[in-house]
User: Fold these one by one.
Assistant:
Number 1:
Amino acid sequence: MTKVFSSKDVVSGSADLCAGGTLAQSFDVIHPSERRRLQLWAELGVLFVGLPLLMRIAVFDYRVPLFYALPPVFIGFVAFLYVDRTFSLKKELSRGIGWPTALSILGTFAIGSALVGSLVAVLMPERLFALAAERPGLWLKIMTLYPFTSVLPQEFAYRVFFFHRYGPLFHSRWALIFANALAFGFAHILFRNWIAVGGTFVVGLLLAWRYERTRSFWPVYMEHCLWGWLVFTIGLGVYFFTGVKNPAW
């Protein structure tokens, strides 16, 4: 039997640390008991620590191409959100990008890309634009497929799902932002190098901050695409390859 809450029992999800598509929730969901908190922390550990470790095993021990492993993960997270009665995918996706946000994203990227490009030019000049120059066909495929096969599942899992499901665990926006970035960086242990982990932690801070401010999928999707394209164009893509060939390439 479905429990019916009175207006006093239900609080608007938008008033708390949650996703943009989060609907009104009961007071005990937004303010979980100690038992519920332990359950959520355990679940978070399984999904955002255990799952990346399993994917690492699948990719390196069983030679599963990463771009084949991510779509099923994406389907799983979206399916959960779809059946969750306290979440609306329509509401989440209807929240667009305003001009101030778009300009902020582009301005931040312009400054950041200039800094990263300068560091690559100074510290590893042999890698600067190497992929685009030496393998333009592969570079073009990555530019085309990356937003759909990589960014899409990552942003739904690490921003939309994470904020919706685990927002109630945190008492401040900065704690949530830091935890989200930490989980995002940890996911990149798959690539077995500190540049991938450290770099994605820093970008994860930016994406988590952006999502917390906008509560919209599209700004972080756009921003993630820009930084990913930069990585593979500027010469850092070598740190984001698993060494397992994607048959589509």
Number 2:
Amino acid sequence: MVHFPFPRQLRLLSASEFSFVFQQATRAAAPQLILLARPNGLGYPRLGITIAKKQVKRAYQRNRCKRLLREYFRHHQHALPAMDFIALAKKGIEALDNQRFTALANKLWQRHSRQPLESPTCTGC
């Protein structure tokens, strides 16, 4: 069985980690989501998520977006380059269904990745 953990070391937690990415970020954008990235030199990717109340009003919608982003990152972390990523949600992201949300995330992450991302094969999921 293949495990795809999302430990604390794969998360951007402090304000200094976020500001490091914001200083010199490369950007991949869609109307509903912006993905910022910067090489981190750690040998593995990390993820930070920001979803403002102004952009997505309801808490359950913000939580759903964060859950879907974390899940996508968790399953594709081994194919991603060693970069720090910040996902910024925009208005209209809550209206996307799960399939379109995943397709949008895949499209944006592929812009930062040199190789196409494939879904992991998981037996027993």
Number 3:
Amino acid sequence: MDYTSLISNLIKTGEGKRLVFLSQLRMDTVAKNVCGLINEEGGDLLLGISSDGEIVGLKGATAKVDELSGYLNKHVQPNAPISVSLVKYKKHDLIWISVWEGAQKPYSFQGKIYARTQEDTSKANNEDLSSFILQRKASEFHWERQSLLGLEEDGLSIRQVEDSILLFERKNPHLRFSNDPIEFLQYMGLYQNGHFTNAAAILYAKNPVRYLPQAKVRLTVYADEKSSDSFLYDRLYESNLFQNIQDVFDYIDVLFGRSSYISGLKRTERQKYPIVAVREGIMNALVHRDYSKVSSTVHISIYSNRMVISNTGILPEGLHIADLKREHTSILRNPDIARMCFVHDLIEMLGSGTQRMVKDCKTYGLTDPIWKEDGDHLILEFLGLGIGEGVGEGVSEGVNDVVIEGVNDGVNDSLNRLITLINTTPGMNAKQLAIAIGKGHSTVERYLKLLRENMLIEFRGAPKDGGYFVLDK
């Protein structure tokens, strides 16, 4: 992404409690300032800019990024999520460091604790230390950190925990957990006092809704422009966060499909929807939702003319709807969940995600995303991003009233959903259709055979890359 506008806005803002400029790269000076930011409200540090905002650039910045990242992750303790990136600005190389406010204060560098004021970074005094300790105690009572009684190790997806360990160790090569899931979860604050936390269940439990009903995600595809009982797809995703993300993204990819472009002898594909904007919107809903309420929900609704993503939990104090279209600070409601999503490269710490969404929508010819608050919900709307007008009127005359003799009403309902989906997104194969309607592959193969035998659909193309199409009847 082009960060020119973001950096320009930061320079105009000037240094403050959440923003530091350094003209040179000195590891210890950088570490002290990063430590101070983490102990306070989090923020950003730009290397290659003088304190008065003059762009001086950094020589050899490209070779220093990995070294600096490793140094900070090793020497700022306890370990915290720190993002180090090389950015280009007006032909100069800069290094951008971004951090969240830490949940395990106080943080130290070389055994010393630092605090960030509006003007500078300095060693923490006794008043600062008392404040950090109180904040740490408060974070331990946060919903994420509360113990979840009843969840044992065999109730976790250990494979997913091991995946996280591998990704974490790649970012922090000086740390090793010997594939010990409990040691890793304890280090990340997800296992405390002999119990797994609520956040651990949201992230890794095999069946989190058994303990936390609010872990589920609902996705509904409606046949027209309004919510009604006439829908093409309605499913509750009740697995852990990582599995839900995978399943939801898989379905949306299948639903909207891809476009193929041929240039010379080269064929390329891209999604038919603004994938960056949609995924960013869904991730924001999942990471920033208010999980503390049992009635908490994330509902993804896809209509014929728009997509709506709704989650419980309005914007944090200090952040407003108007801020979302410009550079803004990243304020976390669920830092433990956010940190693991950062480890998996599902989110960034830069306050640029909503701006990427705006840019991606424009690339696809859509209007800017619309955010609004409704009661205790935050709602995101993508106008023009739907499955097409008139879907609920029938694939062709009589299609939505297909009744095949010899099968029950439930199967006939699934057959009609398949026909409608094939007409909406022609060319899908059996595997994609199975994902789309939430049925097993063998079951969908059986349904497709019934539809072919009754001359309602046909398969076109080669076995490996062909798909199903509705016959004109």
